């Protein structure tokens, strides 16, 4: 199984609050976000880890290259690097999609923070999942613009909404998908759509079989105050 990491954003809100560290290099309990994700994915027997980084962030580019070289030296799973500035997470996904299209994959943004044990169980569930996508969700809402996920009693997803819409869950920003989803992604880009939430809506419109997988809590690191919240969450 392959894993993709979207790490090409500018982290503008963090920089507006005075943080000079590029988001992928922010440390949680001493470990950079990028390193943490790669370590977790490696421990789950990833066949490849594909990372898209912004070439305008040389510190991030150099760091991920060091991680790639260390993986090579230790005979660990390969780390593939794509250097490209994009206008949205959906477009970042599009840029790395050729590297993910051959087998089921898990995609996440750089700032998703979750407990490793819950994530391991999620990946295990996806390994026997016969649908098109298993989407991580949570009923913990601590996001400025959450994407609400509407589910049936069997956790089948029937809609994604910008407003609560009587939904119990919100999207956690982690997506386990089969290669068929990339066809939808390509059409979204060709039609000029943007944002990952619009891609997810299109998956539903295309009749893809999607189910929600609940996590106790998933945090995003969008503000300086989120760093301490995430550290405390992981420590517990």
What's the helix and strand layout?
Layout: E1 2-7, H1 12-16, E2 27-28, E3 31-32, H2 33-43, E4 48-53, H3 58-73, E5 79-83, H4 89-96, E6 105-109, E7 112-113, H5 116-127, E8 133-138, E9 148-151, E10 157-161, E11 169-177, H6 181-190, H7 196-205, E12 210-215, E13 219-220, H8 224-235
Parallel strand pairs: 1-4, 1-6, 4-5, 8-12
Antiparallel strand pairs: 2-3, 6-11, 7-13, 8-11, 9-10, 9-11
Helix pairs in contact: 4-6, 6-7
Explain what the structure shows.
Strands 1, 4, 5, 6, 8, 9, 10, 11 and 12 form a 9-stranded mixed β-sheet that branches. Strands 2-3 form a two-stranded antiparallel ribbon. Strands 7-13 form a two-stranded antiparallel sheet. It has helices at 12-16, 33-43, 58-73, 89-96, 116-127, 181-190, 196-205, 224-235; strands spanning 2-7, 27-28, 31-32, 48-53, 79-83, 105-109, 112-113, 133-138, 148-151, 157-161, 169-177, 210-215, 219-220. It is of the alpha/beta class and 236 residues long. Helix 4 packs across helix 6 (181-190) and helix 6 (181-190) crosses helix 7 (196-205). The protein has a single domain (2-235), classed as Spore Coat Polysaccharide Biosynthesis Protein SpsA, Chain A. The two termini are 29 Å apart. The model has no long low-confidence stretch (mean pLDDT 96). The chain is globular and about 45 Å long.
CATH topology: Spore Coat Polysaccharide Biosynthesis Protein SpsA, Chain A
Which spans have pLDDT < 50 for at least 5 consecutive residues? none
SS class:
alpha/beta
Total tally of structural domains: 1
The CATH top-level class label: Alpha Beta
Mean pLDDT over all positions: 96
Proportion of residues in β-strands: 25-35%
């Amino acid at each position: 199984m392959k894993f993709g990491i979207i790490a090409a954003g500018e982290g503008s809100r963090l920089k507006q609050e005075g943080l000079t560290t590029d988001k992928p290099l922010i440390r949680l309990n001493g470990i950079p976000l990028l390193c943490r994700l790669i370590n977790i994915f490696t421990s789950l027997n990833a066949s490849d880890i594909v990372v898209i980084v912004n070439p305008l962030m040389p510190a991030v580019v150099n760091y991920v290259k060091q991680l790639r070289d260390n993986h090579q030296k230790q005979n660990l799973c390969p780390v593939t690097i794509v250097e490209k500035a994009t206008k949205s997470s959906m477009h970042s996904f599009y840029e790395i999609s050729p590297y993910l299209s051959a087998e089921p994959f898990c995609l996440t943004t750089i700032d998703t923070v979750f407990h490793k044990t819950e994530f391991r169980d999620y990946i295990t569930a996806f390994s026997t999942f016969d649908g098109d996508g298993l989407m991580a969700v949570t009923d913990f809402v601590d996001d400025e613009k959450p994407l609400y996920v509407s589910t049936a009693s069997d956790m089948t997803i029937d809609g994604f909404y910008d407003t609560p819409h009587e939904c119990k869950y919100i999207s956690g920003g982690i997506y386990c998908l089969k290669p068929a989803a990339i066809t939808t992604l390509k059409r979204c880009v060709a039609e000029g759509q943007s944002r990952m939430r619009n891609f997810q809506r299109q998956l539903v419109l295309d009749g893809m079989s999607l189910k929600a997988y609940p996590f106790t809590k998933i945090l995003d690191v969008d503000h300086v105050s989120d760093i301490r919240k995430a550290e405390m969450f992981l420590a517990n």
